[in-house]
Amino acid sequence: MSGPDMSKSTPAQRNKQLTHAELAATPEVHREQAVNALLRADDITAGYLPGINILEECNFYLDDGEIVGIIGPNGAGKSTLLKTLFGLIPVRVGAVSLRGENITSAKAHVLVTKGVGYVPQTLNVFPALTIEENLEMGIYLRPKKFNERFEFVSELFPLLAERRKVKAGALSGGERQMVAMGRALMMEPSVLLLDEPSAGLSPMFQDEVFIRIKKINATGVSVILVEQNARRCLQICDRGYVLDQGRNAYTDTGLNLANDPKIIELYLGTLAGSSEKK
Ligand SMILES: Nc1ncnc2c1ncn2[C@@H]1O[C@H](COP(=O)(O)OP(=O)(O)OP(=O)(O)O)[C@@H](O)[C@H]1O
Questions:
Q1: The Cα angle at residue 100 between residues 146 and 92, in degrees rounded to 5
Q2: ipTM exceeds 0.90, yes or no
Q3: Is the pTM of this model over 0.90?
């Protein structure tokens, strides 16, 4: 690839020097940038039914400390990518690695012990259990650390401590989302995978969720965020990927994607002209 000499720059610096066109068009660039990534997927193909691939040769990486957003149309494969990274769907072709360790198709419970947390879009709390019991379920592998982690999670979500004896089934959608994120944080993950955390929430609660994600990230947790609310997602993420029909369509910084006329036209639709919240 022609262009600036990137041999002495950090991955973060190199990200900023490249346009989405360069990144999307050249898998070599992805590989070069992803060398020291915290989590990366190389050319992964995956699907649910035999012979039907949902993801086709997808490339993805997350650097330490980043929030990376994944946006795209309905059915593009965003949730499937997250599930594949978390070992819920086997990888058919390609590889996934965590801090350089090959974790391709490693099972979810193994990934949790390696510092990967996952919050599914639905059915992400135990409604019959109290908030406290839900959080206990999150750390059942290390029960002695409950108090320490409960304190950490309560600082991010004070409501969870205040209402610890309330059953999760009695909470609003936004409050349940906090329980789900809190539970995933109990195991002290270094990477948190969030599947459409703002889905179905009122605009006020959506804002609250995005603010909390930034706070979680500020504690040192790297975040992969799948979102329908693409514009809001791009506002808070360091980098974003656009998936379309199971393939990488574009990737760039969140800011560049949000302001790219092509992305606006194809993926952000009428939201593009709406007032933005910073
Ligand atoms: N359990 C499943 N079994 C078979 N096919 C599935 C399953 N879950 C999802 N799919 C299919 O995989 C494709 C990608 O779905 P996925 O949920 O990953 O898309 P998405 O980009 O997250 O979209 P959305 O924003 O609508 O959730 C769709 O065609 C969907 O019908």
A1: 95
A2: yes
A3: no
